[in-house]
Amino acid sequence: MKQQLEAIRAGALEAIAATTRSSDLEALRVKYLGKKGELTAVLKQMGKLSPEERPVMGQLANEVRAAVEKAVESQAALLAEKALADKLAAETIDVTIPGKEIELGHKHPMYTALDSFKEIFINMGFEIMDGPEVEQQDYNFTKLNTPDDHPAREWSDTFYLTEDSSILLRTQTSPMQIRAMETHGVPIRMISPGRVYRKDEVDATHSPMFHQIEGLVVDKGITMADLKGTLNAVIREIYGPATKTRFRPHHFPFTEPSCEVDIQCHKCGGKGCPTCKGEGWIEVLGAGMVHPKVLRNCGVDPDVYSGFAFGFGLERMAMGRYKISDLRLIFENDIRFLEQF
Ligand code: PHE
User: Which range scores top for mean pLDDT: 49-53, 69-73, 195-199?
Assistant: First the structure.
């Protein structure tokens, strides 16, 4: 029995000293000191000893138990200390390392241009309205007095979503003229910016998706003079107070009379240069007096009310304002480009 006890002591102390994890240490404590442990098993044999041997072995057994208990305790303290040291080492912060710079994003230059545009119109008492990009052909064409044989209605020019061509991706924001009058009624002063779609190949000046800003003013006694005054004021806010404009006759099915508005080239002052393609003028928008048929299509009496409408190209405006030479740069979202604004 003496040998057994000595073997337990030696084995236990060695195993305990070798532990690196507190769970292993706990397992050893149970193995040696637990109710079903090795020491208990030996003590159960005490009954077989002679009365002289019993106290001697009892004392030895107590010594072994105390030694194992003490070893467990000190190893536990050691492991706890080591765990703390490891944790501190892992969590050390070097306060002298420079912080990581978080790069802040910013608005896309085209939306910055849109924001300043909106502000100009809000200051003039316009409301901002939002409309669907998936549109009915009725709104995109028919109610806008656009005849069935108009080239814009060709399958090759428009993205139709149904075989019967009743639903399409709007080709212009002008359907918002109809929607605005239907939902809001007249008098009205509104602009409606948004995406439009045409079956164009991508190049420096074309994209199958681009943005327009529609405008509509309807009230009693609105004339072409209001159209010119309003658009001149807006253009001078955007392009500078000295900007010269030119109103050129044009045709749109939903306005009569219609015009296109050019600004004198800010690069060459009208002499002709690559920016204006030698023209001296740059086209910035289409406009006109709302056609009486369009008013009637929206339940508005053209003998009482009149109005004007206009459509700006947002990309073109942003390109002019920021001197961007290629439309594709606006949509590619290359960070090296966007960072410049
Ligand atoms: N919708 C026309 C276009 O896309 C522009 C326009 C808008 C013209 C409003 C007149 C009035 O070209």
Answer: 195-199
